[in-house]
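Q: Protein A?
A:
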Amino acid sequence: MIWQKTVEGDLYYHLRNNGGKEWLMPKRHLRTGLALYQPSSQRGKWLKRLLPYLATFPSITKRLGIDSTTIQLLPELKEAILSSFGIEDADFAIFCGTPCVHQKYTIQIFDGQKILGYCKVSDKDSIGELFSREKRLLDFLNERGMSGMPKVLSIGKTHSGFHYMVEDTAKTLHSTYPHIWDEKQAQYLHLLEEKTRVTLPYEQTDFYHLVRKTEEQIDWIDKTYREAVEQTIQEVDLHLKGKNVECCVAHGDFTPWNMFINDGHLFVFDWEYAQRTCPPGMDHLHFFTQTEIFEQHHEASRILMDFEKEFGRQRLFDYQCYLLFVMGIYLQRALSPEEAGINRWCELCHHIQNQKS
């Protein structure tokens, strides 16, 4: 763990959800700390609003399953974070990460009501490499003149073996979170495409390697959907093999929970799964699909119906490319079929193939 329990530490509230996620929120400036807590369930959203008031009633927080504990960040990690901002002290809120092979801690650093930035932490070398990869990508985008993304302030490894990467942020307590697609997201992706556009042979693109990853791991796919995914791979290869393909950077997880709006400007973070050379449009289709699944709670048949309404049936091939794109990303970061969690996208492939037959 990146903290130690001690009587000299600060008081924190320990929050959990049904998906195995955990947060540690400081009692001091709790409302600012809760900016790190981005729940998708209605219960979680109500908890975020009410916890600053409920925290004064221990009997109520206990009934809600919220424990309290006294902790301090590990001294070496704390020093690395503070020196990144050139300050002597700060407040910290901690997210313990999404349970998966690439699970990592995320620390929000703030001073009273002012959010200063974030620090990602892991004791795994493979995730340390992801941090380095993300820094290279952000440096590349900065060189291309892209804005609305974090800047890496420091990256390193503590003597105790924790990799860390500290980033700044534009987030404030007044930032909003865009759960509906509008012109801001469209303009952002248009600018990203414009600044990173390149034409390459299909076989030299990151997208091609994601397709191959899905093909290599075909045995991980549920037998119900396996043939449909194989057919989708064949169709995409048939259409693109031996051709030059226009590509651009794709964020890889362009969703409402990885962005916010501040002063009318969109800010996008968590670029660790970004791909440099993929067909344009992957991020828009990901935003659409993930909000359909996790916020609208729609089944595959309804998602495809909504897709045709929003994008038109003529873009069905693009959607098949997207499904292979997102499956490849998730297969890259998993150690088992269960951890990959790609059935929802495989089912969409299955429905598309059924519509064609």
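Q: Protein B?
A:
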Amino acid sequence: MRASIRPGTRHVPWGEATYKVGDPVLFTETNRFRPVIFNNLKGTITDIERVPGRITFDVELQREVTETDVRFTDLRWVEGSTVQFDVFERPGSDDDDDQVNTLVPFQLAYAVSIHKAQGLEYDSVKVVITDANEERISHSIFYTAITRARRRLDIFWTAETQQRILCRLAVRENIKDESLLKARRGIVPVGTRPRKTRERPRP
């Protein structure tokens, strides 16, 4: 009989990471489970079993999955949108050739980089900008970060960091972005867009 690990009981170490039931995950290695699992698919760990040489995860996916879908894959259907799979220990610590079934195919998703968050949306988003990553915040990266939130957005930065970043962001006239923000976030321009005028060539 499988031993289930319930939230708040204990953590399960594997390699350099530690997992527990209830952890949100983001799939990053998907070749093994195609076409059921794709890159950036989100899920939640619902059960874990560890025995010598192997760890087994049950993960509830944020997509519909049927028993038929997982046929001819390394996945086992549990119920609803929950699937199960095994990850095995590497044969030797000196072996750099990782087999696909020795790789944990996801990362914990309590926090993800802005790059990894592209194409994803969350009800609540917290963006942390520090002196260490400030120089990497370009106009496009900042736009990607703030448009991941459906309902609530919090940005954590110092007043000095905020001033430096906002001062160097390019002001662009992008009607498409403006329409998207208006439709999805209810954000409207604070004023009328000034019309561009062309200078007449001097005679």
